[in-house]
C-alpha cells in the first residue's frame, strides 16, 4: 500500500526491479500451470501491476520469454480457453437476462398509477427472498441450476405481478451477478491491453499470430467475446439495452478499450483482422454508438456515455493512419449517415444531472465530449461518403441558424475541432483530426498577432523552429489566463489592455499640448478667460459629443468627447487644477495598464530574474515613474511620455534601428573622424595658429558690474603693449581660438564638422602673397574631401542603407505573411488552378494555431491515452525533432498531382465494373442454357430409354 504514495518514476523503478528478479517469468509460469482460480486471478493482477503505465521493459521481457522460450502456445491457450468458456457462460445465461430485463421493460412501459398490483406485502417479501436465492444459484456454473431456474421462471413472474412494491421488484432484478468465469475476463482483458500499451507493435502482432504449430488469435477472439456479451447471437442490434446492465457494462467497456489498444499505433494487420472478421463485431460497435442503451441510460447515463465514447474511439482506431478506404467503407456499409448526425445532436443537447464544472478533474465524462468524438468519427468517415459529408454541413442555403439544434451542435463541434498534417518516418503524410483542448480558448489575440508577425524565418525559409521554441511561453500564458478568469476584476482589466495603452498615449499628448501652449502658468492672467462665442461653442461641442457618444464609432466618439471635456475643464477650472487632474488620471490609467500587463503576462509568477529581464515591464514601470515626477516635481517631465509613440509605431522603431542595428560600424567610422580631426588640429596648431581667428559676440556687461569690476581691479600704472588690457569699447570682436592644442581640437571639431565647407570656412582668409597660401589651400581641401565628403557621408550612408534595408525587410516580411504558408512555406502561386485555394490551405490544412493546439493536446493528454499519431509526435517532441512538420509539402497538392492517374484508375474501375456486370449476365445466361441442355438431355435419354423397350416388347408377338 505504501507504493501508491510514491511518484510515478518510483513505480517504474519498482516494476523494473521486480522484473530483474524474475517476476514476469513467475507470472507466465503461474498463468500456464496453475489450476486454482484464485491463484490465476492474483497472477493476472500481478501482471497488471507490472505493466501499469505501459512499461516498455516489462513488455519486452514478456515478449522475449514467450517467443524465445517457446511458452507462447500454452500461455495463449489459457486465455483462449478462458475466452471460449466465458462465451459459453454468456450464451447459457442470455435467456435469463432477457427474461429479467423484459420484465423490467414491462414495468417501465406501463403507467405506474394504473398498474394492477395487489398490496400483498408478505408475498412480495417472500418473492424477493426467493428470487435472491435463485439468482445466487443461477450464478453457479452448473447447467442444472439454469434449467431449474428456467422452469420456475413463469410462476415467479405471475407471483411478481401480485407484488405491490415496485421498487422492491426493480431491486430484485438488479441483483444478478456475473459468474466467476465471466468476471475473470475483466482483469484478463486489462492484462492483454497493457501488453499492447503505448502501441507495442511486436506484442500487437504476437497476440494475433504466434508462429506456432497452433496459433491462437486473441484479437479475433476478443472481438467474438464482445459480440457474445452484447447479445448479438440472439437477436437484433436495436435491443442492445436488454443485454447491457450495471453488472456487465464495465466488462464491455474494458473489452472495447482492449480492442482499441490492439489497433492503435497503427497496427494495420489487426485493423484488417477486426474489420474482416465474420462476427457481428463491427455491427455491435456501431450499434453501441447510434442506438439508445435503455433502461441503463435512464439510471446511469454516465456509464452509457462512457460506453459510446469508447466505441467511437474504437472505430477511429480501426481507421487510424490508413491510406486506403477499405475499413471506412465497411463501417459505412453497416450504418446510415443520418444516425451519427442524430446521435451528435442528442449528445449536444443532453446534460448530466450532476455535470461537473469545467475546471474539475473528475473522471466523469460529459455528453458533449462524447458527441465531439462522434463528430470526429463522422468527419473521418465523411471523406469516403458524400452523403455524410453533406449531412455534416450545418444549415442549408439560408446559413447558420443558432436556434436550430443541428446547426448549433455542428457549429460548436466545428469550432472545437482542428486538423493538421504530419510527416511520418517513411516521409508519407497523414491528416489528423483532433479535439481542441479547452485551455486553448485562453490564448489572447494580442499573443496571436505578436507570434504571427514576429516569428523569425530560418535559413530554409521556415518559421517552424522559432514557433516551436515559443510554445512553452504560449502554454504558460494559456494556463495563467485560465487562472485569472476566476478573478473577474483582474480579467476585465487585462482584457482591455489595449484600451488602457491608447488612453495613456492620448492623455500624454493632451498634457504636453497644454504645457506647450500655456507654460508658464499665470503670467498673462488670462488663462481662465474666454470670449463668449468660444465659451458657448465649447459647451455646445461638449453637449453634442455627449449625445453622439453611443452613436459614433467607439474610438472616434470617445476621443472627441474627451477632447471637448478637457478643453471645457481647462477654461472652467483653470490651468493648474485641470493639468493636475489630467496628470492624476494619466497616472491612475498607467497603474491600471500595469495591472493589466501583469495580469496578461503573469510577470511575478515567473520569478525575480524574469521580472528584471522583461524589458517591456521595465519600460512601463519607467513610464509610471515619469508620470509621478510630472505630477509632483515639474510639468516638463511629461515631455518624456511622448517617446511612447516610438514603441507604438513600427516605422519609428525602424528609424531608431537604422542607427542602432549597425551601431558598431557607425561608432568606428566616428572614431576615424575623431582621429582625422585630431590630425588636422595638430597641423593647424603647428603651422596655422594665426589663422584660427574667430569672430565672437560677447554678452553686454551691465553698468553696475562694470563699475564694480573696474573698482576692484587694480590697474597697473605702467603696462607693456602686449599685456595691457584693452578697453571694452576698443574690442574688435575677434578671438584667437588655437593658442592651445586642446582649444584647437575643440574648434576644428565644432566648427569644422558643422560647416558645409569644413574648417576653412571659419579660418582667416589669407592673401595669395603669403608664403603659406598654398599650404592653406591644401589644408582646407584635404579637410573638406577627407572629413566632410568621405567620412561623414560614410556615416550617413550606413544609416540610410540600414533604413532602406529595414524598410525592404518590412515589405518583404509583409509579403511573406500574405503569400506564404507559415507551416510548410509554400507560396500562393503553388495553389493556382488547384482544387484547394491558398486561403483554404492556411485556414484548414496548415493552420498554425491548429499545430499549437495539437502540441497543447500532447502536453495535457495522458500518455497512455495517446493515439498512434499522437504517440509519434510526442516522441518527436521529446527528441526536439521537427521533421514531423510538413515542409514544402501539402496533401492537397499531392492529391492534385495524382488526379490524372486517379481519373484513369477510376475509368478502369468503371470499365471493370461494367465487365463484371456483363460477365454476371453471361454467367446467368450460360446457367440457363446449361439447365435447358440438361433438361433436353434428360428428355432424350428418357425417350431413348422408352423407344427400345417398346421395340423389344413387340418382337415376341411376331
TrEMBL record:
GO terms for biological process: calcium ion transport. Pfam families: Ion_trans, RIH_assoc. InterPro entries: ARM-type_fold, Ion_trans_dom, RIH_assoc-dom, Ryanodine_IP3_receptor. Residues 182-288 form the RyR/IP3R Homology associated domain. It is found in: Membrane. The chain crosses the membrane at residues 497-521, 533-553, 565-588, 623-646, 666-688, 781-804. Residues 581-810 form the Ion transport domain. Residues 912-939 form a coiled coil. This is Ion transport domain-containing protein. It comes from Takifugu bimaculatus.
